[in-house]
Q: What sequence folds into this?
């Protein structure tokens, strides 16, 4: 899946850190320790340069102009689509739709693919560990159509209970929506097995891949998912740009999601003839510079090597898991056998927001809250957790800084 001209370089965390300008600053008099990567990642210089370079040299609209700048912008934009197609293993660049985010990708599937097929008595199946982006669109759809939202339970360890999942699949299920990696727990779900079980009953599956793309090799053909939704900013790219992989046959069946320029072939006051996917779902001027930055981010990850990144992050997660448990009063939330990217925990008697505030004063950036996954919090009878999440540029000494900060929290609260 790697671009032909790229080869992975030896993994060198210090060389990698040198590529990320934002990491080299102080916060409250301390070197920044950035452990909020599940919320958004920092950006390498190549991504920043790609966005700036577009505005400095090639700023023009795409698909419409015959002049040089427009042609250059169009080639770069569509080449970015090809980079993304190759990275996730799609068959055809036309299976990649640019969106604003994972959230918009899921909404696109909900409104353009599922809603025309959904009627009263039908079911939509999701899991307890979904992000709000993979809950609320389905709730609204069910309310509008009379369909029912069904939810697969999870275990105390934070794993999907596969026996219950299999039982909930039935001839009324119209779509399965499942997160690849939980943003709140770090659980890596067995999505390939879940897709196979659903397909045995002819049920399509949408995978929320927002957290998976920076941490795992993703091959949509191997998974055989029907849709895969993801965002650039989780994987070292710009904010405000995402993508949806959809099997070509599904995309050709789908109705327009938004209407306007560039998603049409011709318009009169009597009728409109629509463009084919992916352009059918990309109405209006797109986030051109975002697409360029997205491609550069994936190329950067490829240059480092996803397998090397995966091994490095596993070491960090294992180290962090062991280290934080040495702090009195810490309890981990979610102990799945397969985890990646994130560690969630609570500290007895101390609110997560207070922990996050004190850690910030020590220069350590973590996330404290419900992580847009309130049903997960409810499952564990919590209002919030502290989440430390890791990226390819994090180091072992930053885990030590986290633990030192947690001891400071204990001291402050006695």
A:
């Amino acid at each position: 899946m790697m671009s032909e001209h790229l080869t992975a370089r030896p993994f060198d965390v210090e060389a990698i850190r040198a590529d990320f300008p934002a990491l080299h600053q102080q916060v409250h008099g301390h070197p920044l320790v950035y452990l909020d990567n599940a919320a958004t990642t920092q950006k390498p210089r190549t991504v920043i340069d790609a966005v700036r370079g577009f505005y400095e040299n090639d700023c023009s609209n795409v698909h419409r102009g015959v002049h040089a700048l427009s042609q250059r912008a169009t080639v770069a934009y569509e080449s970015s689509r090809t980079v993304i197609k190759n990275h996730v293993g799609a068959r055809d660049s036309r299976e990649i739709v640019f969106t604003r985010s994972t959230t918009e990708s899921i909404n696109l599937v909900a409104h353009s693919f599922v809603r025309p097929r959904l009627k009263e008595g039908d079911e939509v199946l999701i899991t307890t560990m979904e992000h709000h982006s993979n809950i609320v669109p389905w709730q609204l759809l069910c309310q509008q159509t009379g369909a029912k939202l069904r939810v697969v339970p999870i275990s105390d360890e934070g794993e999907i209970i596969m026996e219950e999942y299999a039982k909930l699949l039935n001839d009324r299920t119209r779509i399965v929506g499942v997160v690849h990696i939980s943003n709140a727990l770090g659980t890596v779900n067995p999505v390939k097995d879940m897709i196979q079980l659903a397909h045995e009953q002819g049920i399509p599956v949408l995978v929320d891949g927002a957290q998976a793309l920076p941490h795992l090799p993703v091959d949509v053909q191997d998974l055989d998912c029907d849709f895969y939704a993801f965002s650039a900013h989780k994987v070292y790219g710009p904010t405000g740009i995402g993508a949806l992989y959809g099997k070509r046959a599904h995309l050709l069946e789908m109705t327009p999601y938004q209407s306007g320029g560039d998603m049409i072939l011709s318009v009169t006051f009597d009728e409109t003839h629509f463009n084919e996917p992916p352009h059918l779902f990309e109405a209006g001027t797109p986030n051109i510079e975002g697409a360029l930055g997205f491609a550069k981010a994936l190329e950067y990850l490829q240059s480092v090597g996803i397998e090397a990144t995966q091994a490095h992050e596993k070491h960090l997660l294992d180290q962090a898991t062991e280290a934080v448990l040495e702090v009195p009063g810490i309890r981990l939330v979610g102990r799945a056998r397969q985890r990646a990217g994130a560690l969630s925990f609570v500290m007895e008697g101390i609110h997560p927001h207070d922990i996050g505030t004190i850690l910030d004063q020590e220069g350590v950036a973590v996330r404290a809250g419900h992580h847009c996954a309130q049903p997960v919090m409810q499952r564990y009878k919590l209002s919030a957790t502290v989440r430390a999440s890791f990226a390819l540029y994090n180091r072992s000494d930053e885990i030590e800084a986290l633990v030192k900060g947690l001891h400071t929290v204990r001291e402050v609260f006695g």
